[in-house]
Amino acid sequence: MESEQLFNRGFGRNSYNSITSASSDEELLDGAGVIMDFHTTEDDNLLDGDTSPGTAAGASSSTHLLDLLEEPIPGVGTYDDFHTIDWVREKCKDRERHRKINSKKKESAWEFTKSLYDAWSGWLVVTLTGLASGALAGVIDIAADWLNDLKEGVCLSAMWFNHEQCCWDSNETTFAERDKCPQWKTWAELILGQAEGPGSYIMNYFMFTFWALSFAFLAVSLVKVFAPYACGSGIPEIKTILSGFIIRGYLGKWTLMIKTITLVLAVASGLSLGKEGPLVHVACCCGNIFSYLFPKYSKNEAKKREVSYYFPLKTLWRSFFAALVAAFVLRSINPFGNSRLVLFYVEYHTPWYLFELFPFILLGVFGGLWGAFFIRANIAWCRRRKSTRFGKYPVLEVITVAAITAIVAFPNPYTRQNTSELIKELFTDCGPLESSQLCQYRSQMNGSQAYPAGSDAAAAPGVYSAMWQLSLALVFKIIMTIFTFGLKVPSGLFIPSMAIGAIAGRIVGIAVEQLAYYHHDWFLFREWCEVGADCITPGLYAMVGAAACLGGVTRMTVSLVVIVFELTGGLEYIVPLMAAVMTSKWVGDAFGREGIYEAHIRLNGYPFLDAKEEFTHTTLARDVMRPRRNDTPLAVLTQDDMTLAELQNIISETSYNGFPVIVSKESQRLVGFALRRDITIAIENARRKQEGIMLNSRVYFTQHAPTLPADSPRPLKLRSILDMSPFTVTDHTPMEIVVDIFRKLGLRQCLVTHNGRLLGIITKKDILRHMAQMANQDPESIMFN
């Protein structure tokens, strides 16, 4: 399929925890399922696979879910691409594997060693994942900084040094121009031999745009040709995968390699995107690849997704250990050059005061409004991209956006510089070592005017100039981020959202600071702000604004506050951060409860049941199940009176992914559920290994073969592929309970019965359609749009 059609974006958790597997938040993605016309094998009516142990009575027999024969059938129990895993069957397989290991470990020293290897394999996986993730994160940071500076010049003494590293050892830098040293040459100096003048400016402008377009073109070309799954953030898809959906290759080695390379190029191109979201995708690729080295994980899809609603204690410890290893590696590499693990280390010398909660809450309101506006605007643009010819030319789109970004960004120093450096400058508190325009304040010294880097003084012209430039940068960032997120290159949203919030916060901070300086006798400032004393810290406002805007976009709360602590190290300001983040969430939720990642999941038609959505309607299971009135009858198999020809005819004439097995057409008593894939594999295996299997051979799912005439061909036993405890509900079960069951147990479908008789089936896709219908949305627009 053409990569132009592949999806563009890009941690629902939802794996499983013991028997209550988390929501396998996806159902049968059929048709043109994703953003890119995936032609999956799952039909709209798909009866998607082995369910979890059914009802309360069925749970006790779940350990015998597979009822294996003497020899397991190869391929049975595996999943096709774009299908949902069976959480409970995978859990049962893992239990059987664990029992087998425990029963054998006392037989010999070798078996005991194998049991130790199995027990420690989880720790080995997270150790390798932490090492790889930390190393790749460090390499990406260093490479992106170097390529970003390459747009402006080159270090003659060492080509591999970025601008800052090039001038570290120079003794010829000045306080005002600490970034200028003889070793670093701009492109105008190299090509024209001059550093100033109109010609020099035009040459630097041209080279800046040239390199930006080159990096963007190379990034989108690599993604298109080698790994279409490397585009976007990856977080919506990872949320879906973690909840149990299969997307082959999305976490593969090619995706990892191309995403790592193109992430560096995309960030260096100057596009309004970040690398934090794609780094989650990179880390998940590492974990997935290393998991294949250990049978416990390679042969069990649920074990790979061991993140759940309840977050098992062993997973918590392993996650902590993986983070510890990654942090150790990152600290060893020291990509930020400050011997710290945080990206924006801040150290404020003034505490915050109670009256400042008001501007902090205002920043929260701004963050919520920005988040709601961005989600609607970005989703509208992505939907238009999918429905018009423009979406068929991803390379042209990336080049166009990159060209506009570079051309508009160069004249403004706050949009020209790396976004991470911009945020760092906005977060920084003004001190004697700061030479930024934002720190130019007037103070009276011996009757003369000087510009020391202090706060709570009258702003100098440099501050007002910076305010205008920041205002223009704010408008530019808002517009370009809307059109950039969703391009066919790796694109994260954390850094752009933080930059928008940091710009707005710094502007508000300076405004409050000047208000306190000129009106220190107001009742708001009188008690806390003494004349000539530091009172307001504009950098703190930038940090609070960044958290508020990020919260407005993602709708995260507690985890977001922790992330900001992690990025900045500012643990003293928990109350301002929490006030702003909660306000942004409340304001954003007033316009819609979806965060940007959930909105993209819905846009792409991913089969994902969001645990945050409440279902409060009074419908029953019989209102949602299929078949409905005037529909064709439910396709079923009987337990012992079908021939192989009849079974194959049902498979060929339908596109369902599974079939209920009943005692007889007359009784409609439920026996179990059989997957289409397992039936097909079992038939092929029987024909290959057993003689006498013919089209008129009797197929049976019972323990013992039915009584047959003496001249009958050899029967085919398929009991080993039968799920004898499918999850069932009665037709009067409230849909509120059914939806909760699907979320908590990660079901793909459940069967509906009445007095033990089979009536119909409810799939996850039916659930999603019904929820859309109850929300007055087009049910068909939810899936495969």
Automatic annotation (TrEMBL):
Residues 625-691, 722-780 form the CBS domain. It is found in: Cell membrane; Early endosome membrane; Late endosome membrane; Lysosome membrane. GO terms for cellular component: early endosome membrane; Golgi apparatus; late endosome membrane; lysosomal membrane; plasma membrane; synaptic vesicle. The keyword Signal does not apply. The keyword Transmembrane helix applies. InterPro entries: CBS_dom, CBS_dom_sf, Cl-channel_core, ClC, ClC3. GO terms for molecular function: ATP binding; chloride:proton antiporter activity; voltage-gated chloride channel activity. It is a multi-pass membrane protein. SUPFAM superfamilies: CBS-domain pair, Clc chloride channel. The chain crosses the membrane at residues 123-144, 208-230, 251-271, 277-294, 315-333, 353-375, 395-414, 466-487, 499-520, 540-565. Pfam families: CBS, Voltage_CLC. Signal peptide: none annotated. Its main location: membrane. Belongs to the chloride channel (TC 2.A.49) family. ClC-3/CLCN3 subfamily. This is Chloride channel protein. It comes from Cyprinus carpio carpio. The lineage of its organism: Eukaryota, Metazoa, Chordata, Craniata, Vertebrata.
